């Protein structure tokens, strides 16, 4: 077997092979430094993140608002009725499988990690005076910020523009190859600037891997903290073993493919999340959780734009940049992969249906999840021990401490470990599927090429256990996102241009396939008469 076939590159062009080797080389070099000199890498990444957030935190906050308005307007316009894949496209997945894949790939273990850590951290270190919301308790305002960052408007700002652009450019209008750069077709002609499309794909791959590595790092460190803090096990060694087991499951899923592997892992994870939330309602501080959830919801909805655009001008420090700026940068780095994957599994659905499954339904789910998890972490008897653990050992320790002091916490911890493992499997599955597809320009990339990308991402997940500071993991997404942020504005404008031309050139581009079949049947009857 030659090297090209072993790497799954036997049908790749010269540019695609270069894309594979350059991206692999850059990321393997970074991973090697992480294993050999974790302190130096931690320092460099943290320094880069801090510099970006100090000077460009405002940019991510502004960009998020612009994307929110533009993507929502696009969905509400006549273009929202465009069907991904064309007017005759049929949905490939049932609604539950579709929703499960979109949900698990779009969030990951951050729901659990930050659901505990962020509200407690904000209560301990609130926004500088004057407070952005007057007459709100510290707990309600902290949970309201959590809703802003990981419920809405975060959900509508970042994934949706890329999903719309990729779905329209690649599937509906058939522009170019199955690559991220194809979304530029409505803005820049491929031949006008030689090499531009290749550079865009390279930047997209690196940004995507950076965003995925951040989530895998969060997951690995949190799993290690739970295994060590709750069960008293040799956490790091066991986490490596768990990652090895996950790797075997992942390789099996790679050969099963999108329909069986990713779909089944996603469905199982969503079911486990439901079980965990039901158990949490029973064993947690139930009354406090529900009351705080409602009060924080009022603060969130009443001050939606105020909290979203809060920058604390003139105040000492960079509170807003370190929270909202960080979140939006992470979403931006993650959006290329999630948006393109969502478009892939949404063929046969309209843009408005896409808005529902990517924004409306997950908003309801994450609002429930974060309300329960945040109320649990902020509850009487929970907040102080969690804050102490987090101050001593970082955010993953906060989750472990919350489980440790909760009645039946070991049962909940077992479920959480399986949920985190499920998130890791679905993230790896879907990530390598899209990374390989983008590299090869093939909607259904071969398993061998996907396995190599999976090995690279697993390497980054394990490398995170060597980094001394949790903040170093956070830095990957922020550092990778900045140079790619302008691209999001370009692809949103490009999707408008492509959609406009597509609608003009097609007399009935938005018709429901069922309606078309009925009309075809009616025409056949008329012809027979």
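^ structure tokens above, recovered residues below v
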């Amino acid at each position: 077997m030659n090297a090209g076939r072993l790497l799954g590159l036997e049908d790749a062009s010269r540019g695609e092979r270069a894309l594979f080797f350059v991206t692999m080389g850059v990321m393997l070099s970074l991973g090697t430094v992480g294993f050999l000199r974790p302190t130096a890498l931690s320092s460099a990444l943290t320094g880069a993140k801090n510099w970006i957030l100090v000077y460009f935190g405002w940019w991510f906050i502004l960009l998020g608002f612009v994307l929110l308005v533009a993507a929502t307007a696009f969905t509400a316009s006549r273009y929202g009725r465009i069907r991904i894949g064309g007017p005759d496209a049929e949905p490939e997945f049932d609604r539950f499988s579709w929703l499960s894949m979109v949900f698990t790939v779009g969030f990951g273990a951050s729901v659990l990690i930050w659901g505990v850590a962020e509200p407690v951290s904000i209560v301990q270190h609130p926004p500088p005076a004057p407070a952005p919301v007057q007459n709100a308790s510290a707990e309600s305002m902290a949970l309201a910020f959590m809703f802003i960052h990981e419920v809405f408007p975060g959900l509508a700002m970042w994934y949706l523009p890329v999903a719309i652009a990729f779905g329209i450019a690649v599937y509906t209008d058939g522009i170019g190859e199955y690559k991220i750069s194809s979304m530029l077709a409505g803005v820049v002609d491929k031949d006008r600037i030689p090499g531009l499309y290749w550079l865009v794909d390279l930047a997209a791959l690196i940004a995507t891997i950076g965003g995925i590595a951040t989530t895998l790092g969060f997951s690995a460190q949190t799993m290690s903290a739970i295994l060590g803090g709750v069960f008293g096990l040799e956490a790091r060694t066991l986490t490596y073993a768990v990652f090895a087991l996950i790797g075997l499951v992942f390789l099996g899923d790679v050969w099963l493919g999108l329909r069986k592997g990713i779909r089944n892992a996603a469905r199982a994870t969503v079911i486990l999340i439901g079980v965990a939330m039901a158990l949490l309602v029973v064993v947690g501080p139930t009354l406090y959780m529900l009351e705080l959830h409602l009060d924080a919801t009022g603060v969130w909805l009443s001050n939606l734009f105020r909290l979203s655009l809060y920058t604390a001008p003139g105040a000492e420090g960079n509170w807003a940049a370190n929270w909202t700026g960080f979140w939006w940068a992470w979403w931006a780095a993650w959006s290329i992969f999630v948006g393109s994957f969502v478009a892939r599994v949404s063929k046969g659905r309209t843009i408005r249906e896409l808005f529902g499954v990517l924004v409306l339904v997950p908003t309801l789910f994450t609002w429930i999840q974060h309300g329960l998890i945040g109320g649990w972490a902020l509850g009487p008897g929970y907040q102080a021990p969690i804050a102490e653990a987090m101050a001593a050992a970082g955010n993953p320790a906060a989750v472990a401490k919350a489980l440790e002091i909760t009645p039946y916490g070991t049962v909940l911890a077992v479920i959480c470990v399986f949920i985190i493992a499920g998130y890791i499997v679905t993230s790896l599955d879907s990530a390598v599927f899209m990374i390989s597809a983008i590299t090869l320009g093939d909607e259904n990339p071969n398993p061998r090429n996907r396995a190599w990308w999976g090995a690279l991402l697993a390497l980054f997940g394990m490398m995170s256990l060597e980094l001394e500071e949790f903040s170093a993991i956070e830095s990957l997404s922020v550092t990778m996102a900045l140079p790619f942020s302008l691209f999001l504005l370009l692809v949103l404008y490009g999707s408008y241009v492509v959609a406009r031309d597509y609608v003009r050139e097609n007399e009935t581009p938005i018709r429901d396939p069922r309606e078309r079949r009925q009309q075809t049947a009616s025409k056949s009857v008329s012809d027979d008469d």
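Residues 18 and 117 are 41 Å apart (CA to CA).
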